[in-house]
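ok trying this again, last paste got cut off
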Amino acid sequence: MEFLKNLAALIKVKTIVTMAVMAVFVILALRGSITADNVMIITSTVVAFYFGTVAEKKI
């Protein structure tokens, strides 16, 4: 049952948006449209925000 709860939590809008943003910037970096440094900064910011808000909810 806990697995299903965790799976349901992954389908939330915030998670989908986070994964989509990361995918877009990785694709842009692989195509050479933006530099790897920019991808690293943006992805780190998005992931830190996502995990920060998840951790805050659990406390």
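PB: full thing came through this time. DSSP finds three helices and no strands in the chain.
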